[in-house]
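Q: Predict the bound structure with heme C.
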Amino acid sequence: MKKHVWRPLYVVLGVIALLLAARYFLVPSDFGVHGKNFTYGFHRAGNINEWQAVSIKYQGRESCNECHSENVATNSSSKHGPIQCENCHGPALNHPENPEKLTIDTSRDLCLRCHSYLPTPGSLRAGIKSIAPDTHNPGTPCIDCHNPHKPDLEEMQ
Ligand code: HEC
Ligand code: HEC
Ligand code: HEC
Ligand code: HEC
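A: Predicted complex:
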């Protein structure tokens, strides 16, 4: 066969060699060590430890009960019952050691995140009772009139 026919073959072999070399250096040594029969055959064993080491930032409402039982009781029995404390106060990892106190955001923006009117019917978010921020008592903090832990309208009368 003529030489020019072989040339593309050398190129292909060269590319394969490069790919194998790259694979050797780039694929971590613990990749796939569980073997093919492991559910996650193509899996890096060290990944399990990495996820176990991730600290969970959010603690959940039950964890607040020990020290803020009154707030938990009020909040749970209100229309805001489905909302986690940390949704408004931020992650409680290591609280009260560090931070000693969690954030208290008294701005209208905190509430408007969920209650600003959205012209998109059908979505879960649009199903939440909404107000138009520009006309619903503009300039006054929402919490002057609404209790953030028990916003139930029937409690306002
Ligand atoms: C082991 C007890 C303990 C637990 C559990 C705890 N807190 Fe606290 N929290 C405190 C203490 C102590 C303070 C600071 C003293 C104070 O002002 O009441 C505080 C302060 C706060 C403040 C600020 C109060 C203020 O007046 O500035 C908020 C908000 C708060 N915690 C929310 C939470 C939430 C939400 C959770 C659950 C995710 C939680 N805490 C879990 C003990 C606790
Ligand atoms: C919808 C947002 C929202 C949720 C949910 C929420 N809070 Fe609050 N929280 C606030 C706001 C706003 C204030 C400030 C109220 C004020 O200054 O009148 C506050 C004040 C507080 C305070 C300090 C004043 C007080 O009442 O003692 C604590 C402690 C607190 N929240 C704990 C909690 C805990 C525990 C939960 C969950 C059971 C929770 N909060 C859920 C918005 C929220
Ligand atoms: C000056 C007092 C006042 C302030 C400030 C205020 N509200 Fe209200 N809000 C009311 C009263 C009173 C009602 C019930 C009567 C009505 O529907 O207007 C109400 C009703 C609502 C409703 C129920 C609407 C519905 O469809 O029934 C939502 C949601 C609401 N407010 C959220 C907010 C939010 C969020 C803020 C801050 C951005 C805020 N409010 C500020 C007094 C206030
Ligand atoms: C994470 C989303 C979220 C945030 C933040 C939030 N709310 Fe709500 N709110 C809800 C949901 C969900 C309901 C219950 C469903 C409904 O009434 O549409 C509700 C209900 C209400 C209602 C109507 C209660 C009733 O009787 O129908 C008022 C008023 C209200 N919230 C005020 C506030 C105020 C004031 C703040 C800020 C301090 C706030 N919300 C922050 C989600 C939120």
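A: Residues 79-80, 82-83, 87-88, 110-111, 113-115, 128-129, 142-143, 146, 148, 151-153 surround heme C (ligand 4) (CB under 6 Å).
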